[in-house]
């Protein structure tokens, strides 16, 4: 079982307590009525789905119930780091070469 | 009809007649005892940082702010569930909802006394029994007496409180209580082996 660090509970918890909530850092357009169909499609349906590092929203649903963001490698399934919702994308990842 | 009326009269002090789920059920196995706890008053409390002091004063118990902790005073236990969320369990028969009603500071208190039931798991094999369905680390270093957390047991969500080194209180929704009690009973029978 994977252990995921919840930034609100400040410790690692078993994966069964968590639920994935899709890609993170997708900002909803401020004036959605004025969006063109193409732009709306990009916002609503199109996701990066990379092979490698992905930024995701997760929810500690059977714990503190809070949403947070996680950096995960889709190849190894390893969680690189987690941070609270609303915080900016980390500029530098721990253990990254650059 | 007469029988129903008599029953209502007996529970006249309570606002609603209470029929607890699985009342009185117990199971004893070598090393652990699983039993349904008597009804208690419970509220779900949501409040911002600024209201904590006022609510703690009104409830008579200091709301814990550290994750996975609880505080107890005079039969009333406050369990940390989230950064702005607590569960208050009162076993002394006082209504925490009434105490919160006097507080003017911003908060949301919802009575959930009848939604939940409490199950006690006690004995030297209590941690093994709970761990049969709960994936959390229940060693005394990671989950000491007084620790509390919302988590899962099998397929059901529970709130787990360690009341002593070898005793747990498992809180679950009453509609899940049959599943939770049966799972714990099976686990208790296995725990000694």
From TrEMBL, chain A:
Q: What is the lineage of its organism?
A: Bacteria, Pseudomonadati, Pseudomonadota, Alphaproteobacteria, Hyphomicrobiales
One Pfam family assigned to this protein is SoxD
The protein depicted here goes by the name Sarcosine oxidase subunit delta
GO terms of biological process kind: tetrahydrofolate metabolic process
Please give the Gene Ontology molecular function terms for this protein. Answer: sarcosine oxidase activity
Tree of life domain: Bacteria
> In which organism is this protein found?
Mesorhizobium atlanticum
TrEMBL record, chain B:
GO process terms (BP): sarcosine catabolic process
Single GO molecular function: sarcosine oxidase activity
Q: Which InterPro entries match?
A: SoxG, SoxG_het, TrmE/GcvT-like
**Classification via SUPFAM superfamilies:** Folate-binding domain (SSF103025)
Output the Pfam families linked to this UniProt entry.
Answer: SoxG
Q: Which NCBIfam families match?
A: soxG (TIGR01375)
Listed name of the protein: Sarcosine oxidase subunit gamma
Instruction: Give the source species.
Output: Mesorhizobium atlanticum
């Amino acid at each position: 079982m994977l252990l995921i660090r919840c930034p609100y509970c400040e410790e690692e918890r078993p994966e069964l307590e968590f639920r994935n909530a899709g890609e993170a850092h997708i900002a909803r357009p401020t004036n959605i009525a004025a969006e063109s169909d193409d732009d709306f499609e990009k916002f609503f349906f199109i996701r990066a789905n990379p092979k490698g590092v992905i930024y995701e929203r997760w929810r500690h649903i059977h714990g503190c119930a809070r949403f947070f963001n996680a950096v995960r490698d889709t190849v190894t399934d390893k969680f690189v780091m987690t941070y609270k919702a609303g915080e900016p994308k980390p500029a530098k990842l721990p253990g990254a070469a650059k | 009809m007469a029988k129903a009326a008599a029953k209502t009269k007996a529970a006249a002090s309570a606002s609603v007649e209470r029929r607890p789920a699985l009342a009185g059920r117990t199971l004893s196995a070598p090393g652990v005892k699983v039993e349904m706890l008597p009804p208690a008053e419970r509220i779900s409390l949501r409040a911002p940082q600024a209201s904590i002091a006022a609510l703690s004063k009104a409830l008579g118990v200091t709301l814990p702010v550290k994750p996975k902790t609880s505080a107890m005073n005079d039969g009333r236990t406050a369990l940390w569930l989230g950064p702005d969320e607590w569960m208050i369990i009162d076993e002394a028969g006082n209504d925490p909802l009434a105490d919160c009603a006097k507080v003017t500071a911003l908060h949301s208190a919802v009575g959930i006394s009848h939604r939940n039931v409490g199950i006690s798991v006690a004995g030297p094999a209590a941690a093994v029994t709970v761990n049969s369905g709960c994936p959390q680390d229940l060693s005394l270093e990671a989950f000491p007496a007084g620790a509390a957390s919302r988590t899962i047991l099998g397929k059901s969500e529970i709130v787990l409180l360690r009341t002593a080194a070898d005793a747990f209180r498992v809180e679950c929704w009453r509609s899940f209580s049959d599943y939770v009690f049966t799972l714990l009973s099976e686990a208790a029978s296995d725990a000694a082996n």
